[in-house]
Design a protein that fits this description.
The protein has 301 residues and is α/β, with parallel strands linked by helices. It contains 10 helices and 13 strands. It is globular, with a radius of gyration of 26 Å.
Length: 301
């Protein structure tokens, strides 16, 4: 079961920071307006006003202290100030691709079960499209013949780790072992190199992305989640995907979800009618000379 972690943990602090700053701005705007006619007040009124101002000044001081604390807080290697002012050093995987071409990529995560995988391959062939399968190492152990069938169908295979852990909770050496072990298992069956990685649960941090880079892989997320694992009907899966897809989208599906076969068929038909070219991920992303912005959009330099 996949849980989408795309909302970055530091943004709660940035949101609170923005709220505090907005409140300070509104307060000082009101203070400026209140200056008009203030000196016409009698002495007693001025004294009362002074007490109010003093109380509000204390509140402003406390708010400013909170702002400074929030700006100094660090999340996953990036301070709130870096995120708020737009120069975060946090690494980001590829969520989608900036392209003028009407092209999208479909991907399937495979961790448990394989009953519907051949059916997926048959539907992909029926619509003459390709896709990427991200396989967990123990799935490769359990279904080597299906791994071979995916490869022989011309589909791309990436790693989804060896044991499907939350990778950010692992040490760097264990992260590397998870990747290398799963890659070795896939290559033993297909004889082909693995170029792509998708993190279990979509969970990542700088250490993981650096480890992936060191192994020569690209980390791939998604910008369109079918949520097929939640038991959505075929029409709901199709509607959810087609209402969110755009040029350069990477679509997430799962190989053994309840209604994946009919949902896939409806989705491919709708995308084809809309004029989209449907490919595997490596045929969509840029191989080199690119940048990834803080929203995970890959741009060609």
């Amino acid at each position: 079961m996949e849980i989408f972690y795309s909302i970055k943990s530091e943004f709660w602090a940035v949101s609170l920071l923005s709220t505090i700053l907005d409140n300070i701005r509104v307060y000082w705007s009101k203070m400026a307006l209140a200056q008009k006619g203030r000196y016409s007040k009698i002495k007693s009124e001025v004294g009362m006003h002074f007490c109010v101002i003093k109380s509000k000044t204390i509140k402003i001081f406390v708010a400013m202290v909170l702002v400074m604390i929030l700006l100094a807080v660090s999340f996953n290697g990036s301070s709130s100030a870096q995120v708020f002012f737009g120069y975060s050093t946090r690494k980001v995987p590829i969520y989608n691709v900036e392209t003028e071409e009407k092209q999208v990529a479909i991907s399937f995560d495979a961790a448990w079960g394989a009953d519907k995988t051949q059916g997926i391959l048959d539907i992909l062939k029926e619509f003459d499209v390709n896709a990427t399968f991200f396989l967990v190492g123990f799935w490769v152990d359990d279904y080597p013949e299906m791994v071979k069938a995916i490869d022989e169908a011309g589909c791309e295979i990436g790693t989804h780790s060896n044991t499907h852990p939350d990778m950010v909770k692992l040490s760097k050496s264990t992260m590397k072992s998870e990747l290398e072990t799963s890659i070795s298992k896939i290559k033993e069956v297909t004889g082909k190199d693995v170029k792509l990685f998708r993190a279990p649960y979509g969970s990542y941090n700088n250490t993981l992305l650096e480890t992936v880079d060191e192994l020569g892989l690209k980390t791939i997320q998604w910008d369109v989640d079918s949520l097929d694992w939640k038991g959505l009907s075929a029409s709901e899966i199709c509607s959810r995907i087609t209402s969110r897809v755009k040029n350069g989208s990477i679509i997430l599906m799962h190989n053994n979800s309840d209604n994946i076969l009919e949902g896939l068929r409806l989705t491919l038909n709708r995308l084809k009618v809309a004029g989209y070219k449907i490919t595997c991920i490596s045929d969509l992303v840029y191989e080199s000379d690119y940048t990834i912005d803080r929203n995970g959009i890959q741009h060609k330099n």
